[in-house]
Amino acid sequence: MIRLVLNSALLLLTFTEFSNAQVPAAGKNRGTLLWADEFNGSGLPDGSKWGYEAGFVRNNEKQYYTRERMENVRQEEGCLVIESLKEDFQGAKYTSGSINTLDKKSFEGDIRVEVKAKLPSGKGIWPAIWMMGINIKQVGWPKCSELDIMEFVGHTPDKIFGTLHWWDSTLNKESHHKSKGNNQIVSDIHTKFHTYSLERRGNTISLFIDENNYLTFSPPVTAFENTFTGPLYLLLNTAIGGSWGGEIDDSIFPQKFVIDYVRVYKI
């Protein structure tokens, strides 16, 4: 989601990948449930689990992220709803929501993260499910690592992106940012719920859509120390416009990002 030097053309790298046959089959043994939110309450999401980003945050996005405002983030009919609106608010023309578990819950060791969701649609919309290292405050991005479990951009219909970002010593650029990504075509992401998942085993990350593994990657030795292995926190948001969201079609609003549940397992 943080794309200081990355656009929709993902960088293709040649480091060692693993075939699907080498990845334990998702769903066969999820292990022990560590943490979950089923969003079965009412009103705002559980404040002991979720905090908020507020304001204009990154990527030249056009939305204002609001804090504890039910018009943008709420529990409804057993789901979390992140609703994006076209409205004048705090100098912005759009509002949306971004929640995360930073300073509330982090996830260590070998884990499986599952998020069942139905996505918004239309040009300019940019929902995401992602994780970053809790060391972001100490080392910054991309040294903290970024694991994009799911991203969708409305100008690229039916395509789900998964991307891993890290700091690498082989680059001379100031940010030292490298990434590895893949994508999948899924035709009904706006009308049906799909499960977007991440598994971490050691420093190897695998991404799944509905149990189908479409990316597995371990960082090279030139990556920042402990890349992908440290404690992670989870983020859920919908951006509007910006560096990857692009041109905005005002006729699409309102748009809802609907999350049925979030579950994290020890594997």
Structure description:
- The chain has 267 residues and is an all-beta fold.
- It has a single domain (20-266), classed as Jelly Rolls, CATH 2.60.120.200.
- Helix content is 3%, strand content 43%.
- It contains 2 helices and 17 strands.
- It has helices at residues 136-139, 242-245; strands spanning 32-37, 51-52, 63-65, 73-76, 79-89, 92-96, 98-100, 111-118, 125-133, 146-151, 159-167, 177-185, 194-201, 204-209, 212-217, 232-240, 255-266.
- Strands 1, 3, 4, 5, 6, 8, 13, 14, 15 and 17 form a 10-stranded mixed sheet that branches.
- A hairpin with a 2-residue loop joins β5 and β6 (92-96).
- The longest helix is centred in the middle third of the chain and has 4 residues, at 136-139.
- The protein is globular.
- The model is unreliable at 4-27 (pLDDT under 50).
What labels would you give this structure?
mainly beta, about 270 residues, 2 helices, Jelly Rolls
Give the helix proportion (percent range). under 10%
Overall body shape: globular
Provide the β-strand percentage band. Answer: 35-45%
Instruction: Give the low-confidence spans.
Output: 4-27
Determine the structural class based on helices, strands and strand pairing: mainly beta
CA-based gyration radius: 17 Å
How is the CATH topology named? Jelly Rolls
Q: Give the biggest sheet.
A: 10 strands, mixed
User: So what's the CATH class?
Assistant: Mainly Beta
Number of separate strands: 17
Q: Helix segment count? A: 2
Give the count of structural domains: 1
Span of the ends, CA to CA: 26 Å
Provide the residue-averaged pLDDT.
91
Annotated CATH architecture: Sandwich
H/E element sequence: EEEEEEEEEHEEEEEEEHE
